[in-house]
Amino acid sequence: MKHPNPMTYKMQETIWHLWKAGDPMANISKVLSKPPATIFSYLQYHGGIRPRLRSRSLNSLTIRERETITRGLASGDSIRAIARQLERSPSTVCWEVNNNGGSSKYRAIDADNAAWKRGKRPKLCLLSINRQLRDVVASKISDDWSPEQISGWLRRHHPNDENMRVSHETIYKSLVIETRNIFHKTLRKHLRTKRKFRQAKAHKVGSRGRIVGDVQSTAVLLR
User: 56, 72, 86, 171 — which has fewest CB within 10 A?
Assistant: First the structure.
């Protein structure tokens, strides 16, 4: 699911920095020169919860290693010879080549981009893969149970079944974060808090019109 109002990486960093600091959306929109509705849409899309930063696994091939594979293939080197040069297992190099076009079509930059896209895919949480658990949680949400009540009930009724237990935080996030796409959005109205998304702890009642910090100083994050 693509976000309706895409932001650059620097804009995203600025939004989350200011939001965590307690700045109102009006102030964030001034810093970014974006309409307040755009900031609201972005925060609502993520449920007011900052997405985890993506990072490469320490075991994944680097772009330099992939370039070595490209040069080795072009020179007619065997998979085992390339693997020895990289100090990697032949199976790793073989998988890399076969899953990126084969020996004749392998390109380092294309393989690296494909690996990055695969890493971008969100990991499935227990609620997305366990239909029985998901149905129980959805039923109790419909009955106006809070995430805390549901989590506690599951612990008491399924003390020896890890697959039938889930934290209240996971339930809450699965309800408010659109990208998870686990529960129908109509279930959100059963949450006792009627906010569209999570507020940062620094936000205080009545702070809507307050400007926190200096707009010019926060704008430096965009440079």
Answer: 56
CA pseudo-torsion sign 179, 61, 70, 94: negative
pLDDT tens readout for residues 52-109: 666 566 578 999 999 999 999 999 999 999 999 999 999 999 999 999 999 999 999 9
Looking at the chain, the number of H-run helices and the number of E-run strands are 12, 0
* 172-197: pLDDT as tens digits: 877 776 656 678 778 878 776 555 55
pLDDT > 90 in the chain, percent: 28
Question: What string of DSSP letters covers 77-133?
Answer: --HHHHHHHHT--HHHHHHHHHTTT-TTT--HHHHHHHHHHHHHSPPPPHHHH-HHH
What amino acid occupies position 77? D
154 contacts 136 by C-beta, under 8 angstroms: yes
* Residue 212 reports pLDDT greater than 80: no
**Rounded (10°) CA dihedral 185, 191, 197, 198:** -150
- With 0-12 / 13-18 / 19 or more C-beta atoms within 10 angstroms meaning exposed / middle / buried, residue 12 is middle
CA distance 56 to 112: 11
- Lowest-pLDDT choice from 43-47, 126-130, 164-168, 193-197: 193-197
Q: Which two tokens stand for residue 135?
A: 């149905």
